[in-house]
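input
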Amino acid sequence: MCLLFLVAVTALGLASGVLEVSVSGMSFLRGSANYVWCTTSVLGKGATGAVFQGVNRHTGEPVAVKTFNQLSHMRPHEVQMREFEVLKKVNHESIVKLLAIEEEQEGRGKVIVMELCTGGSLFNILDDPENSHGLEEGEFILVLQHLAAGMKHLRDNNLVHRDLKPGNIMKFIDIDGSTMYKLTDFGAARELQDDQQFMSLYGTEEYLHPDMYERAVLRKPVGKTFGARVDLWSIGVTLYHVATGMLPFRPYGGRRNKETMYHITTEKAPGVIAGVQTSENGPIEWVTSLPETCQLSLGLRKLVTPLLAGLLEVDPQRMWNFERFFQEVTMILSRKVVHVFLVNKVQPLTIYMDPEHRYEELQYLVCEQTDMNPVNQLLLYDKKHFSEVVAMDQPASSYPSTTPRSPLALFSKQDDDVTLTLPETPAVKFASFPALVSVEHDATVGKGMCGVGHAIKRKIDYFSNVCI
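output
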């Protein structure tokens, strides 16, 4: 509504001069030489500023405008200028596009004008009950692809972000309906070579590397310095959050239990990708695989789990570097995806094949997910035996395309029964509301119920489509 009003203001010619419009003495329009924005149309807020929705006063193009508060202006001048310099240096489709840096009228300082990402932040998307158990597989792949591409561009320019989290990843929806996830908020970013270190503290505590958490949150006077690889830990936490809808390291009581949070992240064994404490002073449940309740297929989970284990490694000797991360993501994205429907169990499978793998490897990967020996596998494509469609030595990269709605059909030669095995839902039953009324607790319980409902609906939709 506010955006429509801004467009109307522009069309009426008010943008040519008068920008201070008030209702009952309250000013809610602000502007610069070429842009005007509404202070009631808040897209996001942080410690040093806020982002508002606005428009180009000449064309009516919707934009996002970042303004800075008094706390930001109290920082050293070189720190204030750092975000402007970083944004001028980067230019990539996976990074929110800089449109202009202008002086705000009324002498309030500089503002950053950026392209508007109408899909909102990844944090808000994950906060939707529909995504309580993470994003669906195709969307997760997009986040992984675009996040890695954006980070590759930053590292190619010797830049470190230092505040990576879902709240700083925006969903951009193009006019053709295509989606792009973009990095934003470079207020903590700085130039840093791979062999350089820094000491200043930035970031959001749940996504902080343990060494930074120790100093920034626990306030321990340790003389550690930090390198660019701290971004990799934040990427790992973010990707786990995107895959499952939950943070990987969860002490009982959340932020108030900071010492346990530090213990979980620093004491976990190699290969552990999550640690959860479910009671006061209770034991930690160590997790080495993604939960079955997430929307990722078993095939993708097998690829993503070692990626997360490498990113969420605190031992400097085991910790990944950026080159390893980019290589692993490239490997995952290059896989040939083969959709298979196991008729005997009415079960969908998603197989991720190396592009150079042959038919024998496909059979092995099917066996890995079904325990069905290759000699008992009957794979059909378009009513033909799949071995008649592709040669045994033909690379997977040249296999015909499949989709969840048009998969390969898999039958067991050994078992002619058909048994519908429904996947487990995220909870055996809906939670119940306690007798004592608590708005905050009741909202959490209600959101959890909605999440379970959405998970059940997805299963019903899938099996309904299969029957069709």
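quick obs: Residues 439-467 form the longest helix (29 residues).
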